[in-house]
Amino acid sequence: MSATELDELLDRMPQIAAAVEKFTSESIQSEVFRALMRAFGITGETSGDAHGSGTDERVTARAKGGSETVHSAPAKNVPAKKASGAKVKQSFSQDKTLDLVNGGSPSFKEFWESKKPKSAIEKCLVSVYWLTRQTHNTVPATIEQVYTCFKAANWAVPSDLANTLAQAGTKGWLDTGKRDDLKVVVQGENHIEHEMPASAKSP
Q1: pTM of the predicted model, to two decimals?
Q2: Domains along the sequence of the chain with CATH
Q3: N or C: which end of the chain has fewer CB within 10 A?
Q4: What is the predicted pLDDT for the residue at 55?
């Protein structure tokens, strides 16, 4: 309750006391007191402990003729917000067995240069597409291989590469259910084959 509301309440104390005293039940008196507060426009919230011995009861006692001094209720201790969790620190190793030059046709460099990916999500799509569709590899594409593609293309690696891949999954381009078995789905195929070719961007 603010100081202004408290002053307004004290000014109306005689009227409130007269109304409250018409009832003998303390529980009813408390309800009447609260109703009168609302009727007089005093809407400040009051604080009480687990047994209800808050500011409203002290003011009620004063309204009923008691001598207790009215004090503003102390603000409840609000627990400090928990510090947000530290950013996930990811670390990957390049796949030394991955041949980005002769391991596919075209080479990875030729492929990404023709597709001209702009966003990190498109770069993930281009990498997984090349790894799974343009190479001679028979093993599934992994997040480490995508990391290797980023390094080879001299692209800035997202601080949370796993999340960037997941975003490509959310867009419906990739299946990222398993980080060691990344796949391009139909919508991703359509995007890279029909939306990204360099020829489609030419005047």
Answers
A1: 0.54
A2: 3-63 (no CATH), 108-201 (1.10.10)
A3: C
A4: 47
